[in-house]
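FAQ
Q: What does a multi-component entry look like?
A: The components come first, one per line:
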Amino acid sequence: MKLGEGVEAAIHCAATLASVEGNSTMPGAALAESFGLSPSYLLKHLNMLTAARILESVPGPAGGYRLAKPAERITLLDIVLAIEGREPAFRCGEIRRNGPVKLDASAYVKPCGINAAMLKAERAYRAALAETRLSDIVATYQAEGDPRSLAASCAFVERHQRPQKSDPNSQPRERTRQ
Amino acid sequence: MKLGEGVEAAIHCAATLASVEGNSTMPGAALAESFGLSPSYLLKHLNMLTAARILESVPGPAGGYRLAKPAERITLLDIVLAIEGREPAFRCGEIRRNGPVKLDASAYVKPCGINAAMLKAERAYRAALAETRLSDIVATYQAEGDPRSLAASCAFVERHQRPQKSDPNSQPRERTRQ
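Then the predicted structure of the entire assembly, as tokens:
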């Protein structure tokens, strides 16, 4: 079983965007620089997060990405499913039907017990991922991260965040997407 | 996230081998036929199960595969790890270290919180897989499977199992591997 490398990048970027002020954005190139990633590599994953309404993409000179909702309402499960897709890890090919004795479909009305057991484990995995919010990741980092790393991250965000003209306290966030 | 198709084949084959009598074996070709799979495709997975000591492979004219231990002592986790490898699904690339500000290794002594949260979910997944024994899969199938499917499976096993010369009640199982 393997998750794509994009999951690590996606969670780190979302956690970084949880630290920008107000409705400021951060360009994809800055997010890529922040983790030593190729911007074109990262763009694919940022687009997936945007399609899943975890991020929003603001066009224009002060454009970039920001969270589409508060970090308290984004879980690791949301991010993993946005990047990896919603299909379960175990994909039942119903090979039980392929044997030498052909039975009609009525013999297979009950789900295969192997599939049922695998899906039960997947539910446990997803439930654990859903228990961790993006805000928990950020809070843990702020509480336990190395002070030098924290200071470097804060300085990076301050340098690269792009304030928006609209006042976040009086206007709803734009929902524009690229 | 995706598990390889081999997992489904491996669990089905192990469940079939849980039904052979005594220390009889079943040839890989019969297992492949039983699920409409290519023998060469299945061989790879049978070899993985053998390497993980879930199956044993008996050479010779009455050779084939059989469980290396009772079905009560084999879990779905054992089978999944045998086929997919033991690495966690989330592989932390430590991209937190790759940013524009280079800090020495002492800044990263504590594990990344993202990795920790992902590994916690993986533990939940593995714990759920470890709760289901191969014997549970077989018992559920025997209790709830369609009677026509059960009858076809039993007839197939009876036709293809290969009794061994040694008496399973008086001698330990051979541990020979191909």
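Q: Is there any commentary attached?
A: Sometimes. For this entry: Chain B touches chain A through 63 residues (CB under 8 Å).
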